[in-house]
Design a protein that fits this description.
With about 260 residues, the protein is an alpha/beta fold. The chain has one domain. The chain has a 7-stranded mixed β-sheet, with helices on both faces. Strand 4, helix 6 and strand 5 form a beta-alpha-beta unit. The radius of gyration is 19 Å and the shape is globular.
Length: about 260
């Protein structure tokens, strides 16, 4: 167990995919009609978000003056907030090149959407599914700094502060029970919109690279930012257990995962 340091660590959290299993009529729709086969929850952590914000602002300024890009239909959206799914290829390339030199680390939990687990463990509740993953993601992360500030992406009108706070508290209690010690860190949680927090745009890009690797078997984005990723678990890939936990000793490759 790592010792606590007198510092502030910033976490920026977002998801890719969705927690949906059923349509309004109760039909199972996983993998159909745009309903994803996985839910991925990830964060980036850093001790200096100001530098990240500054670098992305500088990139946005350069893009706004680029004559080649000014007629691209998506460029106005990109100038408000970088979003990997919607940005044009030239912007996406520029963002990934910028991320490569920024000071952060990323961690992910990927959950295959398995009906039996959703029913038994998550009581058929999408928010329980999401919050369970979030608790696992933070389980061993909040004891090493005296202060932790957690920002998560606010989506539409969805109110998530209380459930997310509960998930973080579950992570703390699980850690304390496991190690028989108290976490004395200060923890603050805040919602933010994507356009208002550039660091959330970073985690959006990292999540997108991870999602492409799992869903499309497209590894090139992941490989480009591979050194930024310190932890990845494909939590319900039971066929590969315990090698479904990927790190420097067990590097992730798409041919290692079981079919979705």
């Amino acid at each position: 167990m790592k010792k606590q340091q007198d510092k502030t660590t910033y976490f920026f959290v977002d998801e890719a995919g969705d927690p949906i299993f059923y349509d309004r009529k109760g039909n199972l729709i996983v993998g159909k009609g745009g309903c994803s086969k996985i839910l991925l929850v990830g964060f980036i952590r850093t001790t200096n978000p100001g530098i990240i914000r500054k670098k992305l602002k500088n990139l946005r300024d350069r893009i706004s003056k680029d004559e080649y890009l000014k007629e691209v239909s998506s460029i106005k959206k990109s100038l408000r907030a970088f979003h990997a799914k919607d940005d044009c290829l030239e912007v996406r390339q520029a963002v990934y090149k910028t991320l490569k030199d920024l000071d952060f680390k990323a961690e992910f939990i990927v959950a295959r959407k398995i009906k039996s687990i959703f029913i038994k463990r998550h009581q058929r509740k999408e928010n329980v599914f999401y919050d369970d993953l979030l608790a696992k993601l933070f389980q061993n992360k909040l004891h090493t700094s005296t202060k932790n500030k957690i920002y998560y992406a606010k989506r539409g009108n969805r109110v998530r502060q209380e459930p997310i706070s509960s998930a973080i508290q579950t992570a703390v209690l699980t850690f304390e029970k496991k190690w028989k010690t108290k976490i004395n860190s200060e923890i603050k949680i805040q919602a933010q919109i994507l356009s208002g927090e550039p660091c959330l745009q970073v985690v959006d890009y990292m999540n997108w690279a991870m999602q492409r690797a799992f869903i499309k078997k497209e590894i090139r984005y992941f490989n480009f930012v591979r050194e930024k990723i310190s932890y990845l678990v494909d939590i319900y890939d039971f066929d590969k257990y315990p090698k479904n936990f990927y790190n420097s000793k067990n590097p992730f490759e798409v041919n290692k995962i079981s079919p979705l």
